[in-house]
Amino acid sequence: MKKIDYSKLKAVPESEDFAGKYEDESKIAELLVNNYFKSVSKLLSKIENVISAHEIGVGEGRSTMRLSKMVNNLTGSEFVKDLIPYAKKNNPNLKIFNESVYELKYENESVDLVFLLEVLEHLDYPELALDEIKRISKEYLILGVPREPLWRVLNMCRFKYTKDFGNTPGHLNHWSRKSIVKLIERKYGEVIAIESPVPWTIVLAKKYTN
Questions:
Q1: Are 115 and 39 in contact (CB under 8 A)?
Q2: What is the pLDDT of residues 104-135, one digit of tens each?
Q3: pTM attached to this predicted model
Q4: Rounded distance between C-alpha atoms, residue 198 and residue 158, angstroms
Q5: Contacting residues for 84 by C-beta, under 8 A, at least 6 apart
Q6: What is the per-residue pLDDT across 192-203, written as a single tens digit (0 to 9) for each?
Q7: How far, in Å, CA of 168 to CA of 162, rounded?
Q8: Which contiguous run of DSSP H or E holds residue 151?
């Protein structure tokens, strides 16, 4: 695997607001986030025998709080060390630790299900991240990304990030529903199901067996 020089990454997760959507008190924001996790729950209903699950990029652990109610034996990890105490405070009964998506700490094929929710768009090397996730994954991946160009159009409609044509700061990659499916099927496995809660694409994939 390519050695990552972290000092040269374009992504600066320390400066990004990953908790913003959870702290937005508007009814629309609440509805969108609730619909997001309803979609995750629908995808989970399509798989069985998930004994262990791991969420990568937990941030402050807000998504982890919801996922822990859906699956057993969940662990989480986060690249930004300063966010780990917040994630642990929000999830006191879960194991949460520091790691890079490019250098995951689990052994080969040791986790039944991996969650990667709203992380891939922030990465300098999304394909390398999927390679590493495939290494530790025993079978399933649930991955969510903003659906483009809808994401940027909606930002423009609310006059957000207009100088960047609606691109959220920190989003280095942009996928339509079709292009994210193509990437996952090329790098990870078969796409079993797709949910499209506005304005995201969430995919359930099953790892290819060699």
A1: no
A2: 999 999 999 999 999 999 999 999 999 999 99
A3: 0.92
A4: 15
A5: 78, 96, 97, 98
A6: 999 999 999 999
A7: 10
A8: helix 150-157
Residue 194's pLDDT is what? 98
Helix (H) or strand (E) holding 84: helix 84-90
Give the separation between CA 95 and CA 67, rounded to whole angstroms.
Answer: 13
How many residues are there in the chain? 210
Angle between helix axes 177-187 and 126-136 (nearest 10 degrees) is 50
Q: How far apart are alpha carbons 59 and 171 in whole angstroms? A: 15
Residue 4 has pLDDT above 70, yes or no: yes
- Give per-residue pLDDT as tens, 53-69: 999 999 999 999 999 99
Distance CA 155, CA 17 (A): 15
pLDDT of residue 3: 76
Can you give the residue ranges of every domain in the chain?
Answer: 18-207
Q: What CATH number labels 18-207? A: 3.40.50.150
Beta bridge partners of 143: 116, 203
β-bridge partners, 142: 115, 204
Q: 95 by DSSP, 3-state: which?
A: strand
The residue behind tokens 């689990």 is 106
Q: Which residue has the higher pLDDT, 10 or 20?
A: 10
Q: Give me 81's structure tokens.
A: 């060390």
